[in-house]
Amino acid sequence: MVLGLSFAMSYKPNLIMVVGPTGIGKTHLALQLASRLQCPIVSADSRQIYREMPIGTAAPTQSEQSLVKHYMVGVASIREHFSIAHYEEKTIPLLETLFTKYSSVVMCGGSMLYLDVIEKGIDAIPSIDPKVRDLIQSRLQNEGAERLREELKLVDPFYYEDVDLANTKRIIHALEVYYTTGKPYSFFRKGYTATRPFHIYKVYIELPREQLYERINLRTEKMLRSGWLKEALSLYPYRSFNALNTIGYKELFSFFESATKKLQGRKDGEPISIEDVDEAIAPMVEILECNPLSLKDSFLREEYLATVAKIQAATRQYARQQTIRFRQDSRAIRVSSTIETTALLPLLIGRGKR
Questions:
Q1: Rg (CA), the chain
Q2: Domain extent for 231
């Protein structure tokens, strides 16, 4: 066993969760910490799970993964349904195996559901009927999240009072359970926290709001210059898949369609094909990546810049929701994104443990 650093006076190993809102620098700090402790990193990001979308999810690069071994990155396809239950089923045995070799493991991510399931376990929920899942997803697209929230209040008022109403995934899942089983989600909740064979330490990274938002804006632009447009265009045929109902991809798909209609002179409501989109957008990608302001067509130029702004705004909104949730955990050790591991490790010793 690689000894690393002993935080707790027991034989339990240590899981160090590096958490915080998107764009704040979790990967950088996790890499520093894992390098110092000579241990691997396990991802807790619900979109980095998928191998086809590394750029748009800001997944660890090949260079970063060569520095420290990463797990649970790119382990599923967007063609698969990968649930919270699947994550727990794969990650808990993985951690148990890793802890036979390492006294500490770093977990890095901002997906609250994934972090919660590792810390608390998952409720004994029956399998969801695929037809019900498709129906709820269709309703989300056609009716909107607010309508689904109102419905949850009617069918499961107990869970409605407890759930984070800003978390659309949880609203959807509760309705899926109800329409699959005929019983409310609250009926299946076990109401206790799982006992894990390891200590959990949470390191919550925070920044002043203005600095975080500036990072998000700059990161979005960098991702778009680094191949995100090509990635999104290659995934356009699969845009209805749940994995791609993700900030950035949704906005880019909408831009692809509006730009295609403009370039091909299509009327509103006139259908366009996957081939139409590829034919229209592919020649523009290099220009958009290098210098979108050089686009001669003012409509396309303004449409693209508006799309970038929408992605940045949606990402900032998501970061704001994450910040609210993470700040509610009083046990987490709150640090700046600029902290060095030499300063962080003393803070971990004897603190933040569950």
A1: 22
A2: 211-318
**Residues of the chain below pLDDT 50:** 1-3, 9
Is residue 5 situated within a structural domain?
no
The answer to whether residue 7 sits within a structural domain is no
Phi-psi region of 227 (alpha: psi -120 to 50; beta: other; left: phi over 0): left
Number of domain units in the chain: 3
Tell me whether residue 179 is in a domain. Answer: yes
Specify the pLDDT at position 2: 46
Position of tokens 């990193």? 41
pTM for the model: 0.82
Chain position carrying tokens 């632009």: 221
Q: Tell me whether strands 70-71 and 41-43 are parallel, antiparallel or unpaired.
A: parallel
pLDDT of residue 228: 98
Do 168 and 145 meet the contact criterion of CB atoms below 8 Å apart?
A: yes
Tell me what pLDDT residue 164 has.
73
Q: Please report, for residues 141, 269, 323, the alpha-carbon distance to residue 212 in angstroms, rounded to integers and kept in the order given.
A: 30, 39, 11
* Same structural domain, 68 and 120: yes
pLDDT value for 1: 47
Q: Are residues 291 and 240 in the same domain?
A: yes
pLDDT reported for residue 113: 85
> What gap in Å lies between CA 288 and CA 129, rounded to an integer?
42
Calculate the alpha carbon distances from 183 to 154, 163, 168 in Å. Answer: 13, 17, 20
Sequence-distant (≥ 6) Cβ neighbours of residue 23 within 8 angstroms: 58, 212, 215, 216, 219, 315, 319
pLDDT at 163: 77
215 in the same domain as 299 = yes
Question: Which neighbouring-strand residues pair with 18?
Answer: 108, 203
Cβ-in-10-Å burial (0-12, 13-18, 19+) of 195 comes to exposed
The answer to whether residues 3 and 103 touch, using CB atoms and an 8 Å cutoff, is yes
Q: Which two tokens stand for residue 89?
A: 């089923």
Same domain, 279 and 164: no
Cβ atoms of residues 260 and 281 within 8 Å: yes
The CA–CA distances, whole Å, from 316 to 30, 281, 320 equal 22, 27, 6
59: phi then psi, degrees, rounded to nearest 5: -65, 155
